[in-house]
Write a structure and sequence with these properties.
Blueprint lengths: L2 E3 L2 E3 L5 E2 L1 E6 L13 E6 L13 H4 L2 H7 L2 H5 L3 E2 L2 H10 L4 E5 L7 H13 L3 E6 L5 H8 L4 E5 L5 H8 L4 H11 L3 E8 L7 H14 L5 E5 L13 H11 L6 E4 L7 E2 L6 E6 L2 E3 L3 E2 L2 E2 L11
Parallel strand pairs: 5-7, 7-8, 8-9, 9-10, 10-11, 11-12
Antiparallel strand pairs: 1-2, 3-6, 4-5, 13-14, 14-15, 16-17
Helix pairs in contact: 4-5, 6-8, 9-10
């Protein structure tokens, strides 16, 4: 992402997008931020972790081989270039609540995200970050000034797992969660991998940590499928169900992901249906003016 060209730094992938699509916001996944809306989603290349189970490895990991064969600048030349001004313009033209920076790790393109998000905010668009949260606290604080919502992928609550499997560390991710929870709308996702991060103990630790920030933060527990360098058998809803129940001991909103079961939002006080979801079809008739229609409980949903 940063290239030494004749002794001077350059950003050969600045504005180079791997994908651009108008997605349901639930696909990020964000369930409590403008539910039922669509958001223009920009994808990137590269990552600062090396997850051997990466679901988007072709744009996060494998492109590096192509860069090594030629130069970073030549590799970047194979991707579509979209300036910050152009991306904001596309967001305004689309039926979009804002811009999402996603698919591969957006924060390795910090300069592009910061400039684009500032322009988007000035244009009245929301900014959504879908990230692993693996950045310094200083960088987190700076980027959160122009971000409205984030879904942070916590790969595991084990520092050893981060070091051994991902060639990273857990502490910066937890720092990012703390900064984000105090500043923006935050949701968290964990991909559940059988035998790797699916113990009840680890789920209790993860959910307790999130609850200490805010027990209203939604947690998405998603099914894993074999991908990239992992051949661990896929997880199923049967793997997720007990972990969902464990997490709900601390958190009010826990959702299964990558499964066919409905992921509805219920009132934690009276149990009434607040938001009904079937796939990406959303009906949000159970609350009004931020409160449950049945009991008046305040609903932590933005938009």
């Amino acid at each position: 992402m940063r290239y030494n060209r004749s002794g001077a730094p350059s950003l050969p992938f600045f504005g180079r997008l791997s994908a651009l699509a108008l997605d349901p916001i639930e696909k990020k996944p964000l369930y409590h931020f403008y539910p039922g809306s669509r958001i223009l989603s920009a994808g990137f290349f590269g990552c600062n972790l090396a997850c051997p189970f990466c679901q988007n490895y072709r744009i996060s990991q494998e492109f590096r081989g192509r860069a090594a064969e030629a130069s970073a600048a030549e590799a970047a030349g194979t991707a579509e270039e979209v300036s910050p001004e152009k991306l904001v313009s596309l967001g305004r033209e689309a039926d979009s609540v804002g811009l999402a920076y996603t698919y591969s790790e957006p924060l390795v393109h910090f300069e592009y995200i910061a400039e684009t998000a500032a322009r988007a905010r000035s244009a009245g668009l929301k900014n959504v970050l879908v990230s692993n949260g693996y950045v310094s606290r200083q960088a987190a604080r700076e980027i959160l000034e122009v971000i409205d919502a984030a879904n942070i992928d916590v790969k595991s609550f084990s520092g050893d797992f981060y070091r051994r499997e991902l060639r990273g560390s857990l502490a910066p991710v937890l720092d990012f969660l703390e900064c984000a929870a105090a500043k923006i709308h935050l949701e968290v996702t964990t991909l559940i991998i059988p035998g790797k991060n699916d113990s009840a103990r680890e789920m209790k630790e993860l959910s307790s940590h999130i609850a200490a920030l805010d027990s209203d933060i939604p947690l998405h527990l998603s099914c894993y499928r074999p991908c990239y360098k992992y051949d661990v058998p896929a997880s199923t809803y049967e793997n997720l169900a007990p972990l969902v129940q464990t997490a709900r001991e601390k958190l009010r909103y826990v959702y299964p992901g990558n499964v066919t079961v409905e992921a509805n939002t219920l009132c934690p006080d009276c149990g009434s249906l607040l938001i009904h979801r079937r796939g990406y079809t959303v009906e949000r008739s159970g609350f009004e003016n931020g409160k449950c229609r049945a009991c008046g409980h305040k609903v932590p949903v933005v938009g």
